[in-house]
Every structure is written in structure tokens, then in C-alpha cells.
Design a protein that fits this description.
Layout (H helix, E strand, L loop, with lengths): L9 H25 L6 H19 L60 E2 H4 L16 E10 L7 E2 L11 E9 L6 E8 L2
Antiparallel strand pairs: 1-2, 2-3, 2-4, 4-5
The protein binds calcium ion (2 copies).
The site of one calcium ion has 7 residues, from loops.
């Protein structure tokens, strides 16, 4: 038998290139499908700024509805003779706005921002929207805030207080915030507030 080196025939090359083209088309369409789901970096930065701003507003409030809002003389959950709020903090089941707190500028404690499992418009939570000037910067951003009671007393590690009595709820609050940018992916944040 006579052997000789042979290259690709024209037909083989055309078939090979066609297969390559089909394969590349598949990869390309996969990339195109992925594109809308990737996080837009600008939106991501805006989401982080929004979270920082909201946390600034939330954490500047009192620890609890039953805290001393004026001068911080006493803390809820403390026993002080003659104190009308003696030994009481809001029960975790009742976290949320208290009586008459219909707008965020009336919120006076951390858990008033608890959205009770609902996504709300970011502008509805920001203070600036309450004086007739809606903040267009965060239009279409949605926010979900969950406030839970936590116990820092066990060696620093926080643990959820499952059966939270009014006394036990006085230790700490965890504020989980999820932000959903328009056409984006949810981004999660967490902050803590002690009873001070
Ligand atoms: Ca309140
Ligand atoms: Ca409250």
C-alpha cells in the first residue's frame, strides 16, 4: 500500500467551518440570553447608596417605641421605679409602625421600618419624599425590610430570640434590607442596633 500525507479536502474544510459556525452561534445566543440577568454596575452602586441612606435614617431612630425619645435617660426593658414604660419593649410580633405613624417622617423607632414581608417603593421610605419632593434618583427601586429581635448576650454571636417576651426583646434588633433595582437582581444588606 502506498501511503502519502494528505491535508483536508475543500469539502471537509467547508463542513468543519459550518460545524464551528453552528457551535459559535449556540454559545453566542447563550451569552445574549445571559446579558439581561447580569447586574448593571451603576444600579448596584445606586442600590448600595440607597441602603446606606436608609440605614442612616433607620439607625438614627430610637431603639424602640418604648425608649426614652427625648434624652435617652432610660432604655426600654429596664426597671426604674416611677418609669411609665418600666420593664417593657415592643414585642417582636408587633414590630412595625405604631399608632398614628403613617409616614416615615413620623417613625420614631428602628422597627417602624419593618415592611412586614412586603416590597415597597424606595421613595415611600425615604424622608425626602415626605415633604412633597419625591426623590427621582431611586424611582422604581423596591425595598424589603425585616426587623427581628436578636440576643447578643451569648458570647457575641447573635441568635434569634424565638419566644420574645417584652423584657427579652430589649437586647438587640437586626435589620435586614433587600433592594431590588429596576430590571436588576436583588441585593441584600444587614445591620444591627443595640438598645442604647
Ligand atoms: Ca414607633
Ligand atoms: Ca415600632
Amino acid at each position: 500500500m502506498h501511503h502519502h500525507k494528505r491535508g483536508f479536502t475543500l469539502i471537509e474544510m467547508i463542513v468543519g467551518m459550518s460545524l464551528m459556525a453552528i457551535a459559535l452561534t449556540g454559545v453566542l445566543s447563550m451569552l445574549i440570553n445571559l446579558a439581561p440577568h447580569t447586574i448593571d454596575p451603576v444600579r448596584q452602586v445606586q442600590a448600595a447608596q440607597l441602603a446606606q441612606r436608609l440605614y442612616g435614617e433607620i439607625l438614627s431612630r430610637s431603639f424602640d417605641e418604648y425608649s426614652d425619645h427625648s434624652n435617652g435617660k432610660y432604655r426600654c426593658g429596664e426597671t426604674i421605679t416611677g418609669d411609665p414604660y418600666d420593664d417593657k419593649c415592643t414585642h417582636a410580633d408587633l414590630y412595625g409602625p405604631d399608632g398614628g405613624e403613617t409616614s416615615p417622617y413620623l417613625y420614631n423607632d428602628v422597627d417602624d421600618y419593618h415592611t412586614k414581608g412586603l416590597w415597597v417603593e424606595a421613595n415611600d421610605l425615604l424622608q425626602s419624599s415626605l415633604h412633597g419632593t419625591p426623590d427621582e434618583e431611586y424611582r422604581q427601586f423596591k425595598v424589603l425590610i425585616t426587623v427581628t429581635s436578636v440576643d447578643f448576650s451569648s458570647g457575641g454571636a447573635e441568635s434569634f430570640i424565638t419566644a420574645c417576651s417584652e423584657k427579652k426583646c430589649s437586647i438587640g434588633k437586626r435589620i435586614d434590607m433587600s433592594i431590588l433595582p429596576p430590571r436588576g437582581t436583588q441585593i441584600d444588606f444587614t445591620a444591627f442596633r443595640g438598645n442604647y
